[in-house]
Amino acid sequence: MLGASHKSQFPATNLPEFVFVGKSNVGKSSLINLLCNKHSLARVSKTPGRTREINFFLIANKLILVDLPGYGYSKTAVVTCKNWEKLILSYLEDRKNLRLIYVLIDARRGIKDNDLAVINLVHHFNYTMKIVFTKEDKISDLEKNSLIATSKNLLDYNDKIIFTSIRNKNGTQEIQYNILKYSKRT
Q1: Taking 90 as the threshold, does the pLDDT of residue 49 lie above it?
Q2: Which domain holds residue 174?
Q3: CA-CA to 175 of 20 to 30 Å: which in 5, 16, 36, 160?
Q4: Which SUPFAM superfamilies does the record cross-reference, listed alphabetically (predicted)?
Q5: What percent of the chain has pLDDT over 70?
Q6: Beta strand 17-22 with 63-67: parallel, antiparallel or unpaired?
Q7: What is the count of structural domains for the chain?
Q8: Each residue of 93-134: pLDDT tens digit?
Q9: At 50, is the pLDDT very low, low, confident or very high (cuts 50, 70, 90)?
């Protein structure tokens, strides 16, 4: 694992990168741990705003999973948030090997304005994106169907929406499949 708090610390590599972005405590680090079947690869905390740098995880010397700092936590100092924003922008501007961005959204909360801002940023940089709703086990099927409809209408998003649950491991195989698929693209 490599943590970078400045552009000069980003790894110089030709390996494909897969990014996980979302609000604080949406489950980015937990999902990375589950995908890699390693309980403590990415640090998990119940305290929002714990990930304060961009974390790069080298997986089997073949690809890199990237855990971005969460957004939307109101108790984080404004200066810190601005620094994270600059760091994330400098990362997105400069990564030639970035294959796919997973935008994680808490299924209990739905799509919020700051999620839309991140999705627009991904579109601005012309990266491929997958929408992932986390904490699926905490919502009903009716709420799930509503999220799918909202995503398709609000985001004009026609790709398959992924639902994940750390508790029952739903969605992880689909994410792993996409990582494998996009790893092979040049």
Answers
A1: no
A2: 2-184
A3: 5
A4: P-loop containing nucleoside triphosphate hydrolases (SSF52540)
A5: 85
A6: parallel
A7: 1
A8: 878 999 999 999 999 999 999 899 899 989 999 999 999 999
A9: low
Classified as helix, coil or strand, 97 is: coil
* Least confidently predicted of 8-22, 100-114, 124-138, 153-167: 153-167
CA 109 to chain centre: 16
Instruction: Measure CA of the first residue to CA of the last residue in the chain; give whole Å.
Output: 24
CATH of the domain at 165: 3.40.50.300
Is the C-alpha dihedral spanning 134, 108, 104, 72 positive or negative? negative
**β partners of residue 19:** 66, 101
Distance between CA atoms of 9 and 173, rounded to whole angstroms? 31
Q: In 34-52, which positions are buried (b, 16+ CB within 10 angstroms) versus exposed (e)?
A: bbeeeeebbebeeebbebe
The identity of residue 162, as a single letter, is I
Contact between residue 117 and residue 133 where contact means Cβ atoms under 8 Å apart: no
